[in-house]
Amino acid sequence: MRFLLATLLLAGAASAFKLQSKEEVEKAFGKVNWDTNTKTIYCYQCTEIEISSTGGALTHQPMRLGRFSYAGSLWENMIPLFKAANGQYLTPDPMSNPIIYTLKWVVSETVGGFNAGIQNNYYIDGLQCPWDIPNHWEYEYQREWFEDPTLKITCVQ
Q1: Residues 134, 111 contacting (CB under 8 angstroms)
Q2: Which residues lie across from 139 on neighbouring strands?
């Protein structure tokens, strides 16, 4: 009975956090600049990136790999976010806060990284650009996180 109650509470909490529309994203993160011509303060060097893997992420999270384009910025043009043609985002997670120099990059179907399938939980102190993070990328499989040493994020353009 306790397990059932805990499962229902967690499911309810998770569904409450799922963001779907631009209005919901802006309500949670403040005004988002969706103008792709705006240059961000940090990580402005790339407008297109490639996320690749030949390991576990390719096997278990293939929809989160591929080419992502600059899609806008968060926190008054401080940090960029990137979007793939299939609707996946490379985005800061919901606990990131550039004001206190904490930034965790994730790949998710929503801006803000709820329900992420790829993350880097190691390089979160400071404002690192995702293509400057050399290792410790992880993928989710059956509700557990596993490191994929072959996962790379490359600045393409």
Answers
A1: no
A2: 118, 146
The backbone torsions φ and ψ at residue 4, rounded to the nearest 5 degrees and listed phi first, read -60, -45
Beta-carbon contacts of 133 under 8 Å, excluding residues fewer than 6 positions away, are 105, 120, 123, 153
Whole-model pTM: value is 0.82
81 phi and psi angles, rounded to 5 deg: -130, 150
Contacts 24+ apart (CB under 8 A), 131-134: 131/46, 131/49, 131/155, 133/105
For residue range 103-124, what is the model confidence (pLDDT) as tens digits? Answer: 999 999 999 888 899 999 999 9
